[in-house]
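Handoff note, outgoing to incoming analyst
You'll be picking up this chain. Sequence as last confirmed:
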Amino acid sequence: MKTKNQLNRPSFFALLLVFFAGIFQPAQATVYQTVANGNWSDNSTWMTVIPPKTLQMADTLVIEHNITFNSNSVHWNYGKIIISGNLNGSGFPVQVYNMANLEVTSSGSLSVCNIVNGYSGAITINGTLLMSGGLNNQGMFENSGYSFFNGSPFGLYNAGYAINNSLMETGGGICNAGFLDNAQGAIIRIQGLFSGSVNSGMSNEGHMAVARTFSTEGTQVGCGTLTICYDFYAGKSASWLACQQVCAGGKRLDCTGKVVFNCSTPLSQQCPVIITPPAIGSSKTDFGTPGEPESAKISVYPNPCSGNQLNIRLESLTEPATLSLLDLQGRKIVDQQIDPDQVSDVNFNLPAGLTPGLYLVRMESVQGIVTEKVLLQ
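Most recent structure output, in case you need it:
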């Protein structure tokens, strides 16, 4: 029979239960949501409080307005970030370390300096991603909108799984040590070089254009096209399971770099791959080398646009060009042929019924490709 003291004494296991219940309490979920356009550090921008620079696992950050940074900062995400507005940190070296989920919706845009996407990270771009630096991807990255990486020598370092379903451009190069999937109909334009390591893989069902050198030791599959303006190198370890259409320096090549026949498309129409990104911060960057023609520029106004007419001003255009309005999936809304001797400004009459959100104004000529984003309201 138990004594009175034994009856009143809490059992050892009961104490353990209370102890661990206190430790493993579920984390309190917090939602940080914008309520107005403004600066990140302004209390009036947020529904409750300014988000911490480290977002915890149970936390959610929702950006529905135009938010800017006014200082350098480093942000860690272990929770969930959803951007349907515009988060602009490109004026300062804003760094993002993503260890969980980051999504930019079709109406959203994200402009920062550098992003590290960790092994457990997943980044989904359905809108616009503009980076004055580069993306170090170790997890999952999927672009179904428009992504631009301006880092040098590599704008994109991929050690994970990167998927491009739409349009991806780099001011520098791409270093692939993981797997890069360029889907059917998708486009990757690389101003610098492409380098693939021994253990890397690439599936190209779309089109890839490389302004400098394409060098790989990895496995290449797909039935897409690969245009290289200068050198092509496939190392001894390289494997081409389904040979793509490879054109380098105006010559059609087989998968070992041997010349097969001349490219049907003149080299002048393929190279150089000159990319002028959308405005990053308060400056624009043009990519060219000495001896190349000056890159043309465009400016779009009003932006945002709430009417039915969009105005585009042309700068330094000396050659005939095609001006187009595209959605973020690359679908052409309206286009117009431009003669620089006759016009300096172009007016686009916007079709009725356009869904509000981000669109791309693109001008293509032998002087290069120029892209500006515009928000239609």
